[in-house]
Description:
Blueprint: E1 2-4, E2 8-9, E3 11-12, E4 20-22, E5 27-32, E6 58-64, E7 72-82, E8 85-90, E9 105-112, E10 115-117, E11 123-125, E12 129-134, E13 142-143, E14 147-148, E15 151-153, E16 164-168, E17 176-182, E18 199-208, E19 217-219, E20 223-230, H1 233-252, H2 256-266, E21 268-273, E22 279-286
Parallel strand pairs: 1-5, 4-6
Antiparallel strand pairs: 2-6, 3-13, 5-18, 6-17, 7-16, 7-18, 8-9, 9-10, 10-11, 12-15, 12-17, 14-15, 16-19, 19-20, 20-22, 21-22
Helix pairs in contact: 1-2
Residues 35, 131, 180, 182, 193-194, 196 line the site of zinc ion.
Amino acid sequence: MLEVKDKYIYSFSQENEPVMHVASGETLRFHTKDCFCNQITSEEQKVETIDWDFINPATGPVFVEGAKPGDILKVKIEKMELGEYGVMVAISGDGVLGNDFTENKVKIIKVSGDVAEYNEEIQIPCTPMIGVIGVAPAGAAIPCGEPGNHGGNMDNTKIGEGATLYLPVSVEGALLAMGDVHANMGDGEIMVSGIEIPAVVQVSVEVLKGKELRTPFLETQDALYSIASDKDLEQAIYIATSEMCKHIQEKKSYSIQDAGMLMSAVGNLEICQVVDPKRTVRFKMEKKYLK
Ligand code: CA
Ligand code: ZN
């Protein structure tokens, strides 16, 4: 097994030196740090001690042989192993509720097996997911904290074990990297952190030719999602909806009206996150309607 570890990037960029070159079809394991670069180790620690230059490390990047601009990188998330402790923070001024409190707080959460102990009475069944996963953009570097068409900090709760992510490739080799795993996160990520945790993520990568994507798509056992990010939530909603509509029109040879009405009848517009520099949403269609 190929182990990707000990090399981190803080922005997705075509300038990043690849950690390794792998063939299309290869399986590899990414060893990721939590989004605070594992800097928080106790609840007594002050949020002010965090060095923000080391936020959202993504492990990699990996150069996938044969990937060219215009291709799709298919990333199947096969397995996720979590560390033993997760971290959460409440930071005054940050997130949906940030203006409603002044005192910062750090919370350490024990994770054993697939349960996170929020406190003595609340045990959370873990649904591990990857917050940051993406490829290098064609133009200027994009900080790992930001989501976009290249992927990045999408904080999409559906990017977990068993899911397959399709990313538009913009540079030779794609330059795949990932980090910011959550033992669990609620849709929206309203306080700007999920249960942040180091992890080992096993994925297989494959280069797909002959079809272009404008935004990431995600496939789970029973659903297909378009994913879109924008500074403006309304615009993110429009992009995700329109990309899914175009997909249905093509796949089923439907008019925009027929595809749109099908989406309006059985599709779900869902929030990924509303706290990163851009907002991210996804549009869900059950696969049974796309056959
Ligand atoms: Ca994140
Ligand atoms: Zn995170």
